[in-house]
Specification:
By secondary structure, chain A is α/β, with parallel strands linked by helices. Chain A is built from 14 helices and 12 strands. The mean pLDDT of chain A is 90. Chains A and B meet through helix 4, helix 5, strand 2, helix 7 and helix 12 of A and helix 4, helix 5, strand 2, helix 7 and helix 12 of B. The structure holds a DNA duplex (16 and 16 nucleotides).
DNA sequence: CTGAAAGCGCTTACAG
DNA sequence: CTGAAAGCGCTTACAG
């Protein structure tokens, strides 16, 4: 048996005895299709192994068959995990996932979101992974016909999945406090130009809340931006080491920054937890080896969850987007880089 | 100024005073277009900011405007780097990069390459990153209308870019030999079901060649598959540690496997280079911190180079694919996990 | 070297 | 609830 040509909507119409138009509506779950027609179409499509041509649909003004996965960068551990998990869900649901890396450049971001018409022409939905949008971009995206779902972005009018970053940071900081430390430093994420990326902002807020509850404050010099790379963490910690007095504990807002901090300490002949206690947030695969105490978050789960949400939205476009929140759990993992203050 | 609608080929035809058909040909650099028409069209298109609708082109049988980046998995450090570098090149050249992860599952690979018609409908070209294809898949892909470029796949009839894996492994192994070690173990990459992935195969070959030149052999128990993950390396090294006699040095075919090996050693109360010298291959960002001696390879460069090659092929489809080879350089980096045998 | 015509496979109003 | 018609913006033979 050879199936020489792909079945078209025409074939489905012929086999089901209905018009192309009705078939089209039935296939897209639009209203005004009788129960019976719906079934007839479903059967015929199934039998023919019919799959709509996304090119034709797109040209005619319908679905593009694609979704975009946009990340600030695709190289970090977190994004690689989340992207792959999302890719898997999309592929299994028949959506082609377009990868868009912002390369940490605001210009790329502005260009992409500056022309939503162009983006809409290519994809039906956009999965945003910790993208730092400004208020205008959020409004435009929300007003566009694009389905939007995000990971790690609170204060956003569409569905979001993430962890409770504020709480996670509070937990990590609380761990340090519980060990008797009160002279803390924090390695924060990237500086935020937009208004939506809250993992950085919320984590910093959680850090401050933990301090507040103990009537503690942090010296401004000890709040330093590290981004989410090893190199950034190393630079940040080196900066702290240049101060005349070392804090007794450091909360790094992500594990990779914590690794960098550990490097910097070692380069200065110091180590954790002997000279400074260090706690991270992520539970990166290397953290176990490094003995890094950290707050673990489920990364692949967040990507997969968000992608599933997107697929649901896309499948039934009539259901209005609610802007639901989904928080996945985190867990403190005590290892060897933190210990009681002496 | 508001540009309400995107310019169509019609607009370009009107402005240039030529027919749609000629415009179409000119835009695609097809033959049979006079120098003058070519210029007219270029100017008009430029002025209108014209960009062809990929949906319309695809439907009419032309370019899809997309390329696929396919990787065995998207989560490992190597692939995340290469994918991002390729994504950047494609995006800058106006090609939409579709991400396809094989998730290390042969079934996903077979399904993808089993129906090249479906794939051709979605993309013009396929960038293969260390994908382990079997002979049939290679032949089918080569015969298809798809442009194909690969990274890290030798013995393949299309353009390939990579490092000289055999030589790199020879260098790493030679480093061990130079230090006086002769009782070696090797942690190889994944077992190969196909015929094209040669990074694993070639690296093992380089290891053997180095041994041969010293009239040395390796005990079969000391050749163990580790894949390219930390966990795989850890398992493999644990297996070696279960043998009654430990080799004095280990070559791990990738850094992540080397990290795992280091973990396993530590779990057994041993360490490198005290008990065993360990050399890797990659120069992962963590390797510096781990003090891992390794052979560095340029990862992002390989992805970018291959993507550029693809863009060239795609831009001028008339030039036949030559199956060119491009080898990027590697460099031995001696750090602290290797030392002279005593 | 150039253009008029048909058609790719869908969807969208618009009548029934 | 259903269908005939037009059209989305290109490309591909086919004449000139």
């Amino acid at each position: 048996m050879v199936i020489s040509q792909r079945a078209t909507i025409q074939d489905v119409a012929l086999l089901s005895g209905l018009s192309i138009c009705t078939v089209s509506r039935a296939l897209r779950n639009l209203p005004n299709v009788s129960e019976k027609s719906q079934q007839l179409v479903a059967q015929a499509a199934e039998k023919l192994g019919y799959k709509a041509s996304s090119a034709a649909a797109r040209l005619a003004g319908g679905s593009t068959g694609s979704v975009a996965i946009v990340a600030p960068t695709a190289t970090s551990w977190f994004f690689a995990q989340a992207v792959e998990a999302a890719e898997e869900v999309f592929a299994d649901s028949g959506w082609d996932p377009l990868l868009i890396s912002l390369r940490n450049k605001p210009s790329v971001r502005k260009q992409l979101f500056g022309d939503l018409t162009a983006l809409s022409q290519r994809v039906d939905g956009v999965l945003l992974l910790n993208v730092d949008l400004d208020a205008d971009e959020i409004a435009a995206l929300h007003a566009s016909p694009l389905a939007v779902v995000s990971v790690g972005m609170s204060h956003v009018p569409w569905d979001n999945v993430g962890i409770d970053d504020e709480q996670a940071a509070w937990t990590a900081t609380g761990h340090l406090l519980d060990l008797g430390h009160w002279d803390l430093a924090v390695l924060t994420g990237h500086e935020m130009s937009g208004t939506s990326v809250c993992s950085s902002r919320d984590r910093l807020a959680g850090f401050h809340r933990a301090l507040d509850s103990h009537d503690l404050t942090v010296h401004p010099d000890l709040v330093v931006a590290a981004g989410s790379t090893i190199e950034g963490g190393r630079r940040a910690m080196t900066e702290i080491l240049a101060n005349r007095s070392l804090p007794t504990a450091v909360f790094a807002a992500c594990d990779e920054a914590a690794f960098g901090a550990l490097m910097a300490l070692r380069e200065h002949g110091k180590s954790a937890p002997r000279d400074v206690s260090v706690v991270g947030l992520d539970d990166h695969p290397m953290s176990w080896f490094m003995g890094l105490s950290t707050v673990a978050q489920p990364v692949a789960d967040q990507g997969a969850f968000a992608a599933n949400l997107m697929c649901e939205r896309l499948q039934d476009p009539l259901v209005p987007t609610e802007g639901s929140r989904h928080m996945l759990g985190v867990k403190l993992i005590e290892r060897k880089t933190t210990r009681r203050k002496r």
